[in-house]
Amino acid sequence: xxxxxxxxxxxxxxxxxxxxxxxxKLAHQYHPDKNPGDKKAExxxxxxxxxxxILSDPQKxxxxxxFGSFSQxxxxxxxxxxxxxxxxxxxxxxxxxxxSDVFESFFGMDFGSAFxxxxxxxxxxxxxxxxxxxxxxxxxxxxxxxRGIKKTIxxxxxxxxxxxxxxxxxxxxxxxxCPTCKGSGRVYRRIETVFGVIQQxxxxxxxxxxxxxxxxxxxxxxxKGYLExxxxxxxxxxxxxxEGDKIRIAGKGEAGYRGSQPGDLYLLVNIKPHKYLTRDGMxxxxxxxxxxxxxxxxxxxxxxxxxxxxxxxxxxMTDPSSKLRLKGKGMPKLNNTSVCGDHYIKIKVKMPQNxxxxxxxxxxxxxxxxx
Length: 371
Description:
With 371 residues, the protein is of the alpha+beta class. The model is unreliable at 69-127 (pLDDT under 50). Among the domains are: 130-174 and 219-272, Urease metallochaperone UreE, N-terminal domain (HSP40/DNAj peptide-binding domain); 277-369, Urease metallochaperone UreE, N-terminal domain (HSP40/DNAj peptide-binding domain), CATH 2.60.260.20. The strands form 7 sheets. The chain has a 4-stranded mixed β-sheet with strand order 11-12-18-15. Strands 1-5-6 form a 3-stranded antiparallel β-sheet, with no helix packed on it. A 3-stranded mixed β-sheet has the order 2-10-9. The chain has 10 helices and 18 strands. Helix 2 packs antiparallel against helix 3.
């Protein structure tokens, strides 16, 4: 296989952050959604992902660094191949289990299955049973997060073609066996390693693992089985959501592969900063400016909460360093809105301005009295 360091364009001493940064840049550049119909970009994207799977995993990276680069060559398709015949199942229980694990780390497959063992499904095949999940950010105010809200979002996704039902074939035509993989959905290549020649299994690039292709491609979707759709979707945001929560909307992700189950849409909650309020778990905190004399003599003031203005009684001789508590005026608990946090008021003293000489004289008398 190609050197993963060269694929990602990083040095062998690259840190994990450098590897991640390089991967994100290349993955964004070669992502199939940005290069529709470009097979070379798709293969490059797969190659980038494979390289990242190795270098982002400390154990896989150590194995690669230890055993060095591997050269590869393409051999014949089929169940067998020429070269050294290793059966990694024979290593099980002999103290050499890690040898099999090393190869599985590199090539992402079960070598017990590749060399005579039994395995009914591969990871690559099982991933085709469902469409890709989509994640997008949804912005909420603190009040919306507290009360819950219906929001209409606009997003693009792939949906099952309504003409062919997702199988890619023009109605009335049939699906035929893929000539590349002979219906297996898998192709094989020979890889020369320091241990000999082994065979690697991967998804067929012609049928994308389905094993069959349309005799006559659907005229509406071009044989892809899906259509690009921009949709307005009304979603229910439950009361009590927090920053970073994910809201799952089943079946609203990308179309399933060849008519299979679609993926899901995940809304990542982002709560916008509030001008007056801050959140601490289920509690809300605000700072209210209160007149100095109201603290001394007591008063009633209006305080803004996520539920609207609330009248608050300021007791006489209130300590300005204390917090006033409004019970039950905080955030509701997610999935149990009968339970709410509290609202805490921090006091900021508002000093009187433009006091007359006469009033200052009176205050001076009061000060002398209570010294």
